[in-house]
Amino acid sequence: MPSIDLLISTMNYRPGALDKLLATVPEFINVIVVNQITGASQCVAQMQIKPNATCFSFREKGLSRSRNRLMSLAASDVVVMADDDVEFMPDAFEDIAKAFCENPHAHILTFMMLKPDGTPRKCYKSQSFRHNKFSIAKVSSCEIAVHRKLMRPFTVNYDESFGLGAIYPMGEEVVFLKDCLKAGLNIRFIPVAISCHPEESTGRNFTTASEKTRGALFYRLYGPLSYLMGFILYFRKRHVLAGTISYGVALRAYIEGIHDYKEYCKKKLPDQFACARTH
After folding, report:
1. In 23-144, which ranges are continuous DSSP H helix?
2. What does the alpha-carbon distance between residue 108 and residue 78 come to, in Å, rounded to a whole number?
3. Mean pLDDT of 17-42
4. Which of 6, 213, 252, 267 is spaced 20 to 30 Å from 87 by Cα?
5. Is 164 helix (H, G, I), strand (E, B) or coil?
6. Where are the alpha helices (DSSP H) in 28-128?
């Protein structure tokens, strides 16, 4: 069975803050925590939280940067991503190890999450399938497990322009998975629940700022096709949007986000203005 590291991203950690999460993690799982600190008086030091859990602190911000730090610190065969407010099912890590044994050619597996009331957090399929560039859009970070050893020949990292704390504060997991698909990696969905997570999600808010970020994200993922996808998305969501912002305002913000990201690529990523060609 593959060995597993649990990789946890947190910010301004205080003793006891992860106790509820860690209580759901077996002692045979190695836990690595990256703690991003913002206070000048806070100490940047390595800390042993539990016998199987080590916390590394860095004076920096950005969820994607945290994920990259965690990946660089990992040593086991498989790594499982987690935020600091997730809890794991009793047999989660055995199920993850078993799934990789049953899918020996899979580089990445995605699983199911539950709401606190025990119901599925999303509408998941009942059968396993191989992900494509559209299905990955529904994946959350805490559903992802990566076979680190199989990934070694590939140089795919989290794009630090996306995710909380970055210039575009959403979508880091989907961008990561898209880049993995582009590199030829095998990503499969497994219909097994491994964790429970609060229902709140920054990705479900509809504001001018969120839709501008969504435009940048969709262009990063799908290139010129993102224009058509925006019209379809907001037409389908028009009744939901009515409770916050209008269809027209949302669509204008979305298109502005596309144009903003294209300019960002030209200025910050001159060698990657394949931003438009990553689809």
Report:
1. 63-73, 92-102
2. 9
3. 90
4. 213
5. coil
6. 63-73, 92-102
Residue found by looking up tokens 């935020």 in the block: 83
Q: Among residues 269, 270, 32, 276, which one has the least CA distance to residue 160?
A: 269
Of the candidates 36, 64, 34, the one whose C-alpha atom is nearest the C-alpha of residue 175 is 64
Which tens digit of pLDDT belongs to each residue from 77-130?
999 999 999 999 999 999 999 999 999 999 999 999 999 988 999 999 999 999
Tokens linked to 86 = 């997730």
Per DSSP, helices labelled H in the chain are 19-22, 63-73, 92-102, 148-151, 172-182, 208-222, 225-236, 238-241, 247-268
Q: Which amino acid does the sequence have at 274?
A: A
> Counting beta carbons within 10 angstroms of the beta carbon of residue 96, is it exposed (0 to 12), middle (13 to 18) or buried (19 or more)?
buried
Pairing of strands 108-114, 187-196: parallel
Given a cut of 90, whether residue 22 has pLDDT beyond it is yes
Residue 204 tokens read as 């479900």
Distant-in-sequence, close-in-space partners of 19: CB < 8 Å, separation ≥ 6: none
The reported pLDDT for the residue numbered 270 is 57
Q: How many other C-beta atoms can be found within 10 angstroms of the C-beta atom of residue 103?
A: 17
| 265 vs 189: CA distance, rounded Å | 31
Which residue has tokens 């859990």?
Answer: 53
For residues 63 and 77, give the distance between their C-alpha atoms in angstroms, rounded to a whole number: 23
Looking at the predicted structure, is the pLDDT value of residue 201 above 80? no
What does the pLDDT average to over 62-86?
Answer: 95
Give me 236's structure tokens: 């389908």
